[in-house]
Write a structure and sequence with these properties.
alpha/beta; Glycerol-3-phosphate (1)-acyltransferase; six-stranded mixed sheet; two-stranded parallel ribbon; about 15% strand
């Protein structure tokens, strides 16, 4: 075993130990915030901000993860968006928490059963979907409609599941149907590097990882008025794919 490998093992043990211990303390604080703010803060804005701080801690305290965010000015405060982003790893949401912008993200129902993490998602009123159920999809659309009326931006992964390779997966149309029906702008966000930051198996971190977050310009409602969800999907995927290829090239040069 090389010395660098030994250091990675030690660091990984320390990081995951801190993660487990901190989760208990932070979840108790989250519950207290929920109890105090649930009546005056129907959108759970303060709880989401605390969740963003909690998630960001693991980014800030890890010198192996070099996160760079561009285009944050495109994510305008006070605007309700349908946010679409590609999905590479379980680290994606922690990285997106670094934006400190208010949103609810859609996750598969299995994730809500994860101790502490899933419980926090329920506290935040993040919507879930059972991907094998048509009824669940209809209920999700109704829930998203309610969230948007409450001025919550909603984040969806249109690929449906993780694509850790060097390409975008095919997009599903749910997010684009919701943007059309609820008349909210679409905000594309492109991620690269999160798949390389965490191990696919085991707990030992792979080493240094350059993580890039690119927030593209919003696509206003006026642009897609009269267009179909398919038209919007194709347009958004094209601009995201162009940016994804650029980020991959940039990430490779930075390591």
């Amino acid at each position: 075993m090389g010395f660098n490998r030994f250091l990675l093992i030690i660091f990984s043990v320390l990081l995951w130990t801190f993660f487990v211990l901190s989760c208990t303390v932070m979840f108790i604080i989250a519950c207290l915030i929920w109890l105090v703010t649930i009546l005056p803060d129907k959108r759970l804005y303060l709880l989401h901000q605390f969740s963003s701080f909690w998630g960001s801690l693991y980014i800030w305290l890890n010198p192996l993860w070099q996160v760079r965010i561009t285009g944050k000015e495109n994510f305008r405060k006070g605007v309700t968006y349908m946010i679409v982003t590609n999905h590479q790893s379980m680290l994606d949401i922690l990285v997106l928490y670094n934006l400190f912008r208010h949103f609810k993200f859609v996750s598969k129902t299995e994730n809500f059963r994860i101790p502490i993490i899933g419980w926090l998602m329920k506290l935040n009123n993040y919507p879930g979907i059972d991907r094998g159920s048509k009824l669940s999809k209809l209920l999700l659309f109704r829930e998203i409609e309610i969230l948007i009326k409450q001025k919550n931006s909603v984040l969806m992964f249109p690929e449906g599941h993780r694509y850790p390779g060097g390409y975008l997966g095919p997009f599903k149309d749910g997010a684009f149907i919701m943007a059309l029906e609820n008349k909210v702008p679409v905000l594309p966000i492109v991620l690269d590097g999160t798949a390389k930051a965490v191990p696919r198996k085991g707990f030992i971190l792979p080493g240094k990882a350059a993580i890039r977050v690119s927030i593209l310009k919003e696509i206003p409602v006026e642009f897609f008025t009269g267009k179909s969800a398919k038209d919007l999907l194709v347009h958004v995927r094209e601009i995201m794919e162009t940016e994804f290829k650029r980020l991959m090239s940039e990430t490779g040069k930075s390591l």
